[in-house]
Amino acid sequence: MGSSAEKKRFGFPRLGSGMREQVWAGVAPAAGGAYRLVTVVMNGESLKTVKESTLLDGDTPPPGLKAGSPLVLALPRREVIVKTVQVPSSDRRQISQMAPYEAASQLPWPPEESQVAFAIHDSEEPEYSDLVLFMCRKETIQGHLAALKKWNLSPSRIEPAFLSAGRLLWHAEDEAAGFFVADRNGIEYARYARGRNLFSRGTPPEEDPAKVLARSRTIDERMSPGAPCTAVYVAGDAPLDLEELSGVAAPCAVKSVAELPLPSQVAPSDAVCVGAALGGADYDAGGNLLPEREMRLVVLRHIVRQGRKLLASAVWLLLVLVAMGWYFFSREEARATRAEAEIEAIQAEVGNLKEQYEALQLLAGERTRVGLPLQVVLELYRLTPQNIGINSFTYDSRRTLSFGGEAPSFRAAYEYMDALLNSKMLADVDMKSASKPQLGREELVEFKVTCAITGMK
């Protein structure tokens, strides 16, 4: 029945492959004030199986439906007025603003007593759109909500039954199929083409189903001459003679809805409810007659559920990150422990590296001192008077000699400096410092001298 995009646009969701199983439900009024409730198992957004069918009446215990599970109420066609208005616009936002004014001119009741919903379809004429209005009395909606409340049921969506049926029919191979429901609550006929409802009609239950189908087919052929119906699928709990219906519907084939190629066979009495259940995820689809207050509660519950899912995902992610962090931390700690043990083993084997380094430095200094040429030692011995003491000297690769000593006075130190300056073996003689450790006391003068060795043979 058309492309996937068309099916989604006209309210028939694309039932693709899913990931997580969940239970959705559809409910529809039955005879005598009862309701038929059908639950289905969904795999993501695709139907897996029809789980359970229950006829709710005053004595029926509340169903075991999980709180917050999607629940769609399908209303009989007789309770909903449907009007299609062609509007000169393709801007959906603009059309949404026009909808209340268009509905006010179509309502048979005062606006304050009416519940109105709408859907926007593409028109065959360029720059035009089809505005489909769904109108129902508020007291009818509130009556159904109050009745379902007895079983703790709160619909997340309210729609005409022919929209629910359309979700089933798009599975059929026929490009232009019809849907015929006859039960003790009423008789309905609806027709679809290319994923869109073309015509719908509802009558009281006491009428003859064969006559209703014949009359509906006549109107359908007159309204849609370019889109002939290829098959009519029959549903409902009323006993029907398919051969008799085939005679009045000819040349259309009349089939049971149980013949639809669904993953799970659908009983004729459950067809509308199963189709309604498939719309459980269509929170923002057109044609939702749920009052605004209840709709806000549905949206709030949806947000809370999504928030819980996000919170659960965040907690799970946090636990995974903590576990990964602990794993890597434990692994690195183990590696650090092994490395520390290896270092301790190396230290135990080679000893204290610092002490070895200091010993090597001492040996290097001793080697430098030992390597000082003998001529320089003899020259210093000749120039140094008896009252001067030399207590340290160093000699580097740049042939620079540095030594320190003690003199009885500053005068003696500078006289020693003059003697060094007169040496032919020494050059650039410079006294870096000369001082007493404590001023004002009779103590030796400490001095330091640097010079270059030039006359060495």
Would you give an account of this structure?
With 457 residues, this protein is an alpha+beta fold. 37% of the residues lie in helices and 28% in strands. It contains eleven helices and 17 strands. It has helices at 4-9, 92-106, 138-149, 161-169, 209-223, 242-249, 271-277, 292-350, 353-370, 374-383, 410-421, and strands at residues 21-29, 35-43, 46-56, 71-75, 81-87, 114-122, 129-137, 157-160, 177-183, 186-193, 196-203, 231-235, 253-256, 389-395, 400-407, 426-435, 445-453. The strands form four sheets. A five-stranded mixed β-sheet has the order 3-2-1-4-8. It has a five-stranded mixed β-sheet with strand order 11-10-9-12-13, with helices on both faces. A four-stranded antiparallel β-sheet has the order 14-15-17-16. Helix 6 links the parallel strand 12 (231-235) and strand 13. It starts with a helix and ends with a strand.
Features:
single chain, 457 residues, alpha+beta, Nucleotidyltransferase, domain 5, Gyrase A, domain 2, five-stranded mixed beta sheet, 11 helices, 17 strands, 37% helix, rod-shaped, disordered N terminus
